[in-house]
Every structure is written in structure tokens, then in C-alpha cells.
Amino acid sequence: MKVLVIGGGIVGVTTAYYLAQAGMDVTVLEAQEEHGDFGATAGNAGFLSPSDAFAWASPSALKVAIKSLLNPELGVQYKFHMDPALWAWTASFLSQCRPSKWAKNTDSKYRLADYSIEMLQELRSITKINFDVSDQGISYASRSAGELEKLTKHFSFLQDRGLELEILDRDALHEKLPMLDANSNIYAGAVYSPNCKTGDSTKFTKELAQWCIKHTKCRFVWGASVESILRENNKISGVSTSKGEFKADSYVLAAGAHSSILAKQIGIKLPIYPIKGFSITAPLKDTKTLPMSGFDDTDKLVALSVFRDRLRIVSSAVFDGFDTSHRQRDFHSILKLAKEILPDIANYDEATYWAGLRPMTPTSLPILGTSPIENLYLNVGHGNLGWTMSCGTAKIVADLIAHKTPDIEINPFQMK
């Protein structure tokens, strides 16, 4: 069977890998050139974290949105403007904020994320690809004992579902993260998830693509911007791109935040809204620095990871459409925190700056599997956990195309 995957970011490439492993002839179309940044794949925090599986739609979400209007420094920024798509998405999002729906969505998201990490481990053992992975876990820090107590209670929801956790006091946190400024006592402690990981998703994506080209029936067409998706008798008959037309037996849409735009061409309305995030990547002063756990300042909503010779610092969720522009002031709070807690680790003057879009659904759950069009499959809407959930969602979609029963229950992720 020939399968065409639209999108060459982390989700598209992992989808291609599992399809190829199932013996299929796969072509991947990616709008950017081979050495592009591949959208949200390029600038994320690098967390491989079932520990971050909490659904964004929660009883406290409205309070956070109101705070964002009053505090421009807050990591979440909800910008009111006349965008019908934002209003429709927001209404659907608010409908998911009841405690029962938050619990159901978070449970489903966690089980998918946990399964995905299991698939990633298997993929690593097969391919042996290098993506600067660290198996040191992730620490979620709070600045006061009271907030740490609340955080511990919050994480107990995932702990009850199998997530392994440790509670670190101030000394234990500094022992876990020796790179933190020794004179910094701003954190009361942290919730530590030992089985989570960090890694460079861009490096992973590129290395896995090359592995697929070398070892499977898989080819990549970079710089192939989709111009139109051709539909005939409730089937996709081909995809017209800047590099010609491509045909296959089945098609997978995995184009990140732009999936909703492409789907609209063929009459499918996907409940996805782009959420802009910002990140900074700075070279380490000492490239022999040992791997460390990922770190999340849960009060400032800033996360950071070390990828071998560079530091990645990430923050912000800005509801502002498809605008990916950025100004230096957008990175002020990220850079301020990094210099505060890691003052001597990186060459911040040589940092690079990035802004990109996360494809978020109102439920925080990705949309997987069949679509209203007979031979079109979906692997979209991964939100803030695209890197974490990529292997799991790709394996599920590949199983469905191969007419196999997925390993986990997929009803929560199917298009309604």
C-alpha cells in the first residue's frame, strides 16, 4: 500500500516510521526545506513528559485567562480580538472546564502519553538514533511551601494512574540540579518525575527521517508546499504541491497547526487553534556539562532543558491566531529567569530566539484515525505534548491503516 503523509515535523516523521515498519511504501511531504525548523518541532522545551498530561481546560482556566489580561508577564496570554475561530474555540474550551470533563480528558491524555514513551523506548532500541536524550527526569519547582503542597496534591491525580513521583525539598532539588545557582534559595522544593525525559525533537526528527530513508521504503519531499488537496467521490485522489502532484492509496494529515487550514479545503472542520509559544536556545559555556533533569518553574510557567551543548528555555502560550512574529520584549521574562537561576551556565549573548505554534484542541486531546473522507486519516491537534505523544499517536494511526487493533482505547481521540 502507498501512503502519503502531509507534514514532515515530529508527528509526520514518526507516522512515516511506523507505516514503513508495517511494510508500506511511504512518501512524506514537508513545506519547509530539509534544514528548516519544522514548526512547533523546533522550539519546544524538549520535555518527554507524561507528567505534563493535564488537560488545559480546567475549573481554574477562566481565572488564568482573566489574570492574563491584567498581567502581561504571565506565561498564558489570551488576546481578545475579532477572530471568529478563536471565539468558537473558546466556547468549546469552556465547555470542557467542568471537573468531570477535566478528569476524563487528563486521564485519556496521560494514558496516551505514557504509551507513547513506551513506543519511543522501543524505537530507540531499534534505530539507535542520537537526539541528545537525557533520562534524568523532570523537576517541577515551587517558590513557597504552600504552593509546593498544592502542586503535590495536583500531581497526585497522575500518581494515582501510575506516574512515579518524588517530593524534593530545597536541598534535594539542588542536589538533583547542581547547575542551579548555589546561592539561589528561591525554590521551596519540587515534584520530581524520575521516568520522564528530555531530548531535542528537531534532531530526533531529522535523524529518524534519515534512518527511514536508509532502512525502509520511505522518501521525503522537502519544500513541497501543499497547494490543494484533490477530492473525488469522498476520497482523496491526489495532493497538488509546489513540487508537483502526488498520489497514494491512503493519506495522513499531520501538518501541525496548519492542519485545520488544509482540512478546510476539503470540507473538514477541525477544532484546532494555534497557540504561540516562545523559546530561547543558548550555547553552554562548558560543553562537558553533565546531563541534568528538565526543570519547570511552575510559578513563572518557564521550562528549561539541556541538550548536550545548549540550553533551551521556553515559556508562554499566546492565543493570537497564526501570527508567529516576535519582538525582543517577548523573551524578557524567559531570559530574566534563566539568568537568575543559571547565571553562569550559558552564553546568553549568543542565544537564538524562536516563536512557533502549538496545535491545540479544546479538550487538549489529539485527533486520531479515520476522517469523514474514506482514505484520509488524521494525526493532528497534539497541543503542548506533540513531542511526548508523537510515537504513540503515530503507532495508533499506522495500526489503523494496517487494519490492526491499536494497543490502547482510541475512542477519546477520534473525530466526533
Compute the gyration radius: what is it?
A: 21 Å
CATH topology: FAD/NAD(P)-binding domain
Q: Helix count, per DSSP? A: 11
CATH class: Alpha Beta
Short description:
33% of the residues lie in helices and 26% in strands.
Short key terms for the protein model shown above:
single chain; 416 residues; alpha/beta; FAD/NAD(P)-binding domain; nine-stranded mixed β-sheet; six-stranded mixed β-sheet; globular
Model description:
The protein is of the alpha/beta class. It has one domain: FAD/NAD(P)-binding domain (3-Layer(bba) Sandwich). 33% of the residues lie in helices and 26% in strands. The protein has 11 helices and 20 strands. The strands form 4 sheets. Strands 4, 5, 6, 7, 14, 15, 16, 17 and 18 form a 9-stranded mixed beta sheet that branches. A 6-stranded mixed beta sheet has the order 9-2-1-13-20-19. Helix 1 runs parallel beside helix 8.
